[in-house]
Amino acid sequence: MFSRKNLPHEPLPLPDRFDYSDDEMQARAGDFLELMKKRHSVRDFSRRPVPRAVIEKAVATAGRAPSGANHQPWFFAAISDPALKARIRAEAEAEEERFYAGGGGDEWLKALEPLGTDAAKPHLEDAPWLIVIFAQRWGTFDDGTRFKNYYVPESVGIATGFLIAALHQAGLSCLTHTPNPMKFLNGLLGRPESEKPVMILAVGHPAEGATVPAVAKMKKPLEQILEVFEG
C-alpha cells in the first residue's frame, strides 16, 4: 500500500492466471452479461433480513477494486440498525424536499419524471441494509501528517461497481441514492472530515409486487456505446 518510508518496487509472479480458450472466454462473457441483464434498481424492498456475512463478502469484493497508487481511498458503512436508518431517512428526505421544491432545477426534475421519484424515500427504512460509500480525499499517518490520495472519484466509482455486481451475484437488489448535500452522514456515522459521502446503497430483497419504471429497461444498444478500432 503506502508508507512514510520508501517502499521498493518488488515484482511478484502473477499469483492467479486464467487460460481459457476463445470459446470459453466468449461463453463466460456471455454468461456474465446475461446475469447482469437481470440487475434492476428497485425502490420497493421486502423486510426479509439479509445475513451480515453476505454484506461483508460483497464489501470485501469491492475492496479488491483497482485504485490510484493502490491507496484504496474508500470506506463503507453498513447499517441495519432501525433507529439509525430512520435518522438517515429523515435527514435525506429533508434534503430531497428542498430538491423537489425547485432546488434541483427544471431540467433535472424533468429528467426524473419518467422514473416516478419524489421526496419520499421509504426504502431507506424498508431495506434491511444501507451501505454508505465514502471517498477518502486524503489519509493521515499516525502522527497526523496528511498524504494525498490519487484518482479518488475514479477509484471509488470502480469499487462501487464491484459492490453492486457482488450484491446482484448474491441475489440481492439495491438502489443508488444520492441526496445532496450528504454531509449529514459524516455526523451520523462518525466519519472524519477527510471522507466525503458519495452514495447510499439500499440493499435487500425486492418486495412482492415491486415494480421498475418502463424507461429503466431502455438501454443503449452496443453500437451506441462501443466503437472498435481493430488492427
What is the averaged pLDDT score? 94
Number of domains: 1
Shape: globular
Helix content: 25-40%
Structural class: alpha+beta
CATH superfamily: NADH Oxidase
Terminal Cα span: 37 Å
CATH architecture: 3-Layer(aba) Sandwich
Count of runs of 4 or more consecutive helical residues: 8
Q: How many strand units? A: 6
Major beta sheet, strand line-up? 1-2-6-5
Largest sheet: 4 strands, antiparallel
- Which spans have pLDDT < 50 for at least 5 consecutive residues? none
Overall radius of gyration: 20 Å
Beta content comes to 15-25%
CATH fold naming: NADH Oxidase
Topology pattern, helix = H, strand = E: HHEHHHEEEHEHEH
CATH class: Alpha Beta
Structure description:
With 231 residues, the protein is α+β, with helices and mostly antiparallel strands. The protein has one domain: NADH Oxidase, CATH 3.40.109. The chain is 38% helix and 15% strand. A 4-stranded antiparallel sheet has the order 1-2-6-5. The chain has a two-stranded antiparallel ribbon with strand order 3-4. Strand 3 and strand 4 form a beta hairpin. Helix 2 packs antiparallel against helix 6. The mean pLDDT is 94.
What's the quick description here?
By secondary structure, the chain is of the alpha+beta class. It has helices spanning 22-37, 52-62, 82-103, 106-112, 123-126, 152-169, 184-189, 222-225; strands at 74-79, 129-136, 138-140, 146-148, 173-177, 195-204. Helix 2 (52-62) packs antiparallel against helix 6.
